[in-house]
Amino acid sequence: MNLRNLFSGVSMEEQIGFAKNLAVLLRGGVFINDAVGSLAEQSKPGQMKDILYRIKARLESGVSLNSAIDQEEGAFGKIFMSLVRAGEMSGSLAENLEFLSIWLERDSNLKKQINGVMLYPKIVITAVIILGGGLAIFILPKLVPMFTSLHVELPLITRAVLAISLFTQKYWLTVIVSAFLIWLAIFLIFKIPRMKYLYHKTLVYLPYAKEFVVGYQLALFSQLMGTLLKSGISIDDALEIASIGASNLYYKKVLQEIMGRISKGISLVNTMKEYNNLYPANSISVLAVGENSGTLEESFFKVSDYWTKEIIERTKLLPTIIEPVLLVVIAAAVGLIAASIIMPIYKLTGSLGA
């Protein structure tokens, strides 16, 4: 695993701007190395400017744009690389770059919508953790001496919360460092290809998450396939490039299996039918019409448009699904802390009344 790749990369906004502006310059008849050099000069000082100058130097040495970008060790996304490669293979680099900028912009907007929906739950959960932690760490320990002096036996839930509270107070630095190390370990574990593959495969079968993952991959795959086939690339080469661009490793593996079946003479649609968990029947029907009529690329565009709209609509419905779950989590957390404080007080007032 190359640790440099974990934290490197060009931002989505920079990728969009590069693809869009390079497409305009190429359509205007500017040579590709001059176009990249011009964009490098216009860029603000930073990582992107340095990358563009290095790409320009490689182009002037005779390598292709795809090879020049590939040497930047993952700075650009796989989708970016796939469409640049397809554009160079088909002679439609400017058109592919223009589409690439549109796709990346749409993908970025979709992710921003999802992040916007998730912001409210994050704020609420953070507030609950701070409030509950404050009560458990600063309020509960101050009440314990009073309960002890009056010989009140603390309930199990209070003893458990108190033990955690006292441990956190005494070893707060250890707790913080341990939490960070656990987060870092999880982050690195999911960078291991095998673990990442299992995680991606699990997402495909999780209720509701499946709809997002499959829908997103279908929208991406269909748009790539439509663009590649329209550029004149064979279906075998298009599938190979689309599989490289797939962001879900399980989906990528299935695409590679589909490529193997097609090489044996089985049609694309009949092969896709065998993976009905990834390719819904309605999408298969649309592609079957296109395959039979010779307009497969147009059918792919229709499938992509459908699933893109579907994902956007599902994103808008996320709050109605998250809020009930969030209320249950909040109620459980607050109830646990409240019970640990109230139950000893209730026992104390009961013993005094007796």
Topology:
Elements: H1 3-6, H2 12-27, H3 32-42, H4 47-60, H5 65-70, H6 78-90, H7 93-149, H8 156-170, H9 172-189, H10 193-205, H11 209-230, H12 235-245, H13 249-262, H14 268-272, H15 281-293, H16 296-353
Brief sketch in words of this structure:
The protein has 354 residues and is mostly helical. Helix content is 82%, strand content 0%. Mean pLDDT is 83; it is low at 1-7.
Task: Measure the end-to-end span.
Answer: 68 Å
Strand content: under 5%
Label the structural class. Answer: mainly alpha
Summed over residues and divided by their number, the pLDDT gives a mean of 83
Order of helices and strands: HHHHHHHHHHHHHHHH
> Measured on Cα atoms, how large is the radius of gyration?
28 Å
CATH superfamily of the largest domain: Type II secretion system (T2SS), domain F
CATH architecture of the largest domain: Up-down Bundle
Global shape? elongated
Number of strands: 0
The major pleated sheet works out as:
none
Just give the CATH class of the largest domain.
Mainly Alpha
Low-pLDDT stretches: 1-7
